[in-house]
């Protein structure tokens, strides 16, 4: 996810992402939110819900794996894990690149992505395609 969006999450939820200034031996959060920009709203909503019900919870890693969101936390309650499961399931219905919920499919290749039809076309037609660019 591009820096500007990551910073937005850190600003909105400083407590949840309180490891952001730690070294990467202590938390993987300093590496950033390692997903496409299309999941920003999903991650924002999840962060909001977690913060509301469990202020003790801390996010330690956020990334994409096998086409789905992975949201790792410590000090979480069962309720928090339920929210995370729900958001991780939902990520398979949202284009990781552009955020569209239409014609989204998870495809398997050298790297697994969950993308909408349009983004799959762009990816096929552009050898330099990447899940996100700093300047987009
Ligand atoms: Zn898309």
Can you describe this structure in just a few lines?
This protein has 136 residues and is of the alpha+beta class. It has helices at 3-12, 40-53, 78-90, 117-125, and strands at 33-34, 58-65, 68-74, 104-107, 113-116.
Reconstruct the topology from this structure.
Elements: H1 3-12, E1 33-34, H2 40-53, E2 58-65, E3 68-74, H3 78-90, E4 104-107, E5 113-116, H4 117-125
Parallel strand pairs: 1-2
Antiparallel strand pairs: 2-3, 4-5
Helix pairs in contact: 2-3
Bound molecules: zinc ion.
Zinc ion (ZN) binds next to strand 5 and helix 4.
Task: Write out the strand line-up for the largest beta sheet, numbering strands in chain order.
Answer: 1-2-3
> Residue share in helices?
25-40%
| Rg for CA atoms | 15 Å
Q: What is the number of beta strands?
A: 5
Largest sheet: 3 strands, mixed
> Are any ligands bound, and if so which?
zinc ion
Count of alpha and pi helical runs: 4
Give the H and E element order. HEHEEHEEH
Low-confidence stretches: none
The helix/strand class is alpha+beta
């Amino acid at each position: 996810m591009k820096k500007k969006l990551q910073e937005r999450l850190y600003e909105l939820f400083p407590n949840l992402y309180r490891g952001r200034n730690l070294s990467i031996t202590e938390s993987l959060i300093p590496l950033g939110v390692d997903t496409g920009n299309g999941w920003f709203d999903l991650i924002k909503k999840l962060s909001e819900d977690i913060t509301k019900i469990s202020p003790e919870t801390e996010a330690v890693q956020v990334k994409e794996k096998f086409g789905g969101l992975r949201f790792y936390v410590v000090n979480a309650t069962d309720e928090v894990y339920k929210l995370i499961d729900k958001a991780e399931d939902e990520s398979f219905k949202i284009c990781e690149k552009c955020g569209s919920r239409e014609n989204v499919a998870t495809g398997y290749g050298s790297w697994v992505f969950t993308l909408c039809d349009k983004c799959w076309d762009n990816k096929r037609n552009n050898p330099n395609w990447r899940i996100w660019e700093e300047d987009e």
